[in-house]
Amino acid sequence: MDLDLRKLRYFAAVAEHRHFGRAAEQLYIAQPVLSRQIKAFEQELDCALLMRTTRTVELTPAGKQLYEEAQGILAAVDAAVRRVHDADRDVRRLIIAFSAGLSVSEPIREFSTRHPDVETDIVPARWWEPDAPLRDGRAQIGYLRKPFDETGMRVVPVGHDPRVACLPATHPLAARRELTLADLDGKRMLDPQKRRASSLEEKFELIASGFGLALVPLSVARAYVRPDLVHRPVTDAPASETCLVVPADQRGKLVREFLDIAVSALR
């Protein structure tokens, strides 16, 4: 079957808001129309995507999977349309993907100074598939944190990001200045396989709510400071390697120049 992109956008809006009324407002359509479109979409896919009650809307396992897929699909479609428009208007554009917590602003500023005629954009890379924007065409260069699928990629290491333990401020270990991996043995850890958060905000909310501790990159912990969480160094935890990543078939002059600038700035 062909996937109906319009219905997919409707579903993604409901999945994001968990509310038909707010999703309908965002989409500028009537709520009954949205409800009918979602029901038709479920019939086309032959599976339930949402669990509806009088007050809440929750995603089924199939709905959660489709919502994850939809974000990449819709972003890739939007990127393709933008490239078509750029070609029509003779616009040169460079797009950089970045992992949460990693700052690429310095090389972008220097590149923009050298190439004021080039439009420069950024795309966030989701932590469970950071290389996706490079593979689906949304970005030409990535500033990413390992691990990721390196197949078909040119990878240039530029640094390391220490990992810290993120835990509720009320946790007994929060009183310690630093920890070791042995200190975390036997402690309840957040299992990404059983409960994968769709965003870092959701992940930190789960940690604060007592669903488990987590090892996170220091740059991420610093970017998401909140009073009910603390992060503590884990002295023997291996650091995450940070890299500049370019698809092997990306050999344009702008990509090469940005890569040279970024390597110097980020190392």
TrEMBL record:
Coiled-coil stretches: none
Domain of life: Bacteria
Domain HTH lysR-type: 3-60
UniProt keywords, alphabetically: Activator, DNA-binding, Transcription, Transcription regulation
CDD domains (UniProt xref): PBP2_LTTR_aromatics_like
Cross-referenced InterPro entries: LysR_HTH_N, LysR_subst-bd, WH-like_DNA-bd_sf, WH_DNA-bd_sf
Keyword Transcription annotated: yes
Keyword Signal attached: no
PROSITE patterns named in the record: HTH_LYSR (PS50931)
PANTHER family according to UniProt: HCA OPERON TRANSCRIPTIONAL ACTIVATOR HCAR, TRANSCRIPTIONAL DUAL REGULATOR HCAR-RELATED
Family: Belongs to the LysR transcriptional regulatory family.
UniProt protein name: LysR family transcriptional regulator
Annotated source species: Nocardia tengchongensis
